[in-house]
Design brief:
Residues 146-180 form a coiled coil. This protein has 341 residues and is mainly alpha-helical. It folds into 2 domains: 2-49, no CATH class; 52-334, no CATH class. It contains 4 helices and 6 strands. The chain has helices at residues 2-17, 95-153, 157-263, 270-313; strands at residues 25-29, 32-34, 41-43, 46-50, 58-62, 330-334. The strands form 3 sheets. A two-stranded antiparallel sheet has the order 1-4. Helix 2 (95-153) packs antiparallel against helix 3 (157-263) and helix 3 (157-263) packs antiparallel against helix 4 (270-313).
Length: 341
Amino acid sequence: MRILFILLALVAAASALSYGYGGYGGYGGYGGYGGYGKSYSCYGYRRCLVYPKKQIYCYNIHYKSSWCSYKYYEPVLHVYPGDDCGKDGWTEKTVADLQVEMENLLKEALLKISQKMTQYKLEFAAKLTENANSYKEMVKNKLTNYYAYYIECAKAEEEKERLRQERDDAIKKYNEEIDAKVTAATEKCAADILAKIKCITDYHAKLVENGVKCLEQRNTKISEYANALVEKCKGYVTKFTEYHMAILEQKKTYYRSSLDKVHGSPDWNKDCVDQVIKVYHDQEVAKINVLVIEYAKKLVVYKLKLISSYTCSYRCYMSNSKLRFYKRSYYSSCKRLGMLV
């Protein structure tokens, strides 16, 4: 009978050891039996090591270096002003309107980029959850099989209930720990994506900043050029007027000298001569005013053409080679699941 008890103990120990799980987990148990007659009790202890594959916590964030380069945004960030500048119906836009337009175009581009990166995150989260659930199911089955033997061996109902509770607590603890790691990995993935999106957003802000700076400088240069042209036109009109007035004074002087030679005296019928010269002066001044107005109108036409040509020639490309970022195509991160004891 004593030999029979020893054999039963060895069989029980072998059964407990048979619940090992390949390279990912192992379950070991040692049991002994003692008592009198047909009554006996079983006892033992367990050790549970679980090693889920660390690869399930690895993810790739799809990241293109072109997302932080001007070439990628050429289709949306058009050169201002475009080829329609100077044509009928074209009007100059304000810097504020152009800034809003740039920001909206970049937001649309960022939305497409974010959708791509979010899709990779969702795929990773779904695969991670699937793998984690498979590990939880595997551990649940192993622990259930492991405790089934001890529950069956237990004589008292209280002992069976204690073993069931211990089994359920072990399963719950493992599930909570692996869920926490799944959550941590998912949050890490989301944080990495947000960091990449922030990098792109910062680049967009620099594009807008430099674009606005170029547009403001363009407006300043155009204003300075227009003011300089106005001053030049005023100078031309003044010189034009002075030139014709000088000719008029020469004509008046020549008229007086002619009368002086004919009549032999500069005071001959002076009041009448002065009156005639005054009438002549007023008539010539009226003619000069007409010429000045026509000349000023021509200058205005040419001035507007020059300003329009300068406006259309001064272009903002909204690009700066110093702002280009060089990033890896993929940003990888792996989180080791660790060992649950």
